[in-house]
């Protein structure tokens, strides 16, 4: 992924439209996140983003009971915002055209191997007692120092010999945190080196410092945007999905914190732009796994998080996916999507909490 210098965040006026569910009614207290950004802690709940069945270092499914108290961000977090009723963004047509109105959607995840390598983004689950290790960073000035509880056998996106983004995502269910690395490589002594890294407290609505990257170009959590096979098995994905576009603008919009382009063409979308599958798209004949993903794209949408192939939607690496079902998503194309005005959900530019 391409990196660039920090840019000013675009702050917009918020009004109550669509919005997030919340498991608590009162406003949460202000706090300082791991990156030092002022943010609000959110209400905690057991339903949004719970992750029974994430894979451990060995690839085996983890116990849901061990994760029952750890959700992937609070219910009032922007990732869980229902965007089905938000107005269409004024730049929607231009943004869709720039990504590719005729380009087909692609589920960049599934079971098995492609060209000899696993595909999708693996999630390594650890619990209490996992030893922490030192991680050194190329982009140290925008990375959380750690240490990180990354096992020696943590799974790497694309496999141990991959030459791509090499994301490593560690979900610590005891601390309820996500440790996310970009371009991660293990050292012989058990430590790791990476391009960049970020730590997310999954019980809070903290955002990274304005202008900071993460393991993703937009400075967001990768784990939060991954469809998981266990969610699909339960019949519902309750969050937005991470996706990529070939070219982005030298700008970012809430909740993104970082831009990754030098282009100034106003027809290009900024990092953090939110899209949804149009309500008019008929998904009733999609096979079960594809239908659950498509329904999430209608209700929660997708957040532009990185530069890459057009309409490539990320998900977990998991042998429980059924590739023949997911392939139905390839029948969707750019013309089936529209950008929405996500700024209407914003309460505070430095918090991921959104309006109910």
TrEMBL record:
Domain of life: Bacteria
Signal peptide: 1-28
Residue ranges, compositional bias (Low complexity): 22-33, 47-62
Region (Disordered): 22-62
Keywords attached to this entry: Signal
Protein name per its UniProtKB record: Lipoprotein
């Amino acid at each position: 992924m391409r990196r660039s210098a920090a840019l000013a965040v675009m702050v917009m006026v918020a009004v109550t439209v669509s919005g997030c569910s919340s498991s608590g009614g009162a406003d949460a207290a202000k706090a300082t996140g791991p990156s030092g950004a002022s943010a609000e802690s959110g209400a905690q709940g057991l339903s949004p983003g719970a992750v029974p069945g994430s894979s451990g270092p060995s690839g085996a499914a983890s116990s849901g009971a061990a994760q029952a108290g750890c959700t992937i961000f609070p219910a009032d977090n922007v990732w869980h915002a229902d965007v089905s009723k938000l107005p269409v963004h004024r730049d929607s047509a231009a943004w869709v055209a720039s990504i590719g109105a005729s380009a087909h959607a692609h589920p960049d995840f599934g079971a098995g191997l492609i060209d000899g390598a696993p595909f999708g983004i693996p999630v390594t689950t650890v619990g209490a007692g996992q030893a922490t290790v030192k991680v050194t960073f190329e982009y140290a000035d925008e990375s959380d120092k750690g240490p990180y509880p990354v096992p020696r056998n943590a799974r790497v996106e694309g496999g141990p010999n991959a030459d791509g983004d090499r994301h490593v995502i560690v979900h610590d269910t005891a601390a309820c945190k996500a440790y996310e690395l970009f371009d991660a490589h293990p050292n012989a002594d058990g430590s790791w080196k990476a391009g960049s890294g970020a730590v997310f407290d999954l019980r809070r609505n903290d955002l990274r410092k304005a202008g900071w990257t993460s393991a993703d170009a937009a400075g967001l959590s990768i784990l939060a945007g991954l469809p998981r096979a266990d969610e699909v098995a339960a019949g519902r994905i309750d969050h937005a999905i991470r996706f990529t576009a070939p070219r982005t603008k030298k700008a970012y919009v809430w909740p993104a914190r970082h831009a990754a382009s030098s282009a100034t063409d106003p027809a290009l979308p900024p990092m953090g732009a939110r899209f949804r599958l149009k309500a008019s798209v008929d998904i009733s004949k999609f096979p079960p796994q594809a239908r659950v993903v498509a329904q999430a794209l209608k209700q929660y949408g997708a957040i532009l998080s990185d530069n890459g192939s057009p309409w490539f939607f990320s998900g977990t690496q998991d042998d429980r996916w059924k590739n023949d079902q997911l392939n139905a998503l390839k029948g969707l194309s750019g013309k089936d999507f529209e950008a929405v005005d996500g700024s209407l959900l914003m309460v505070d530019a430095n918090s991921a909490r959104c309006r109910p």
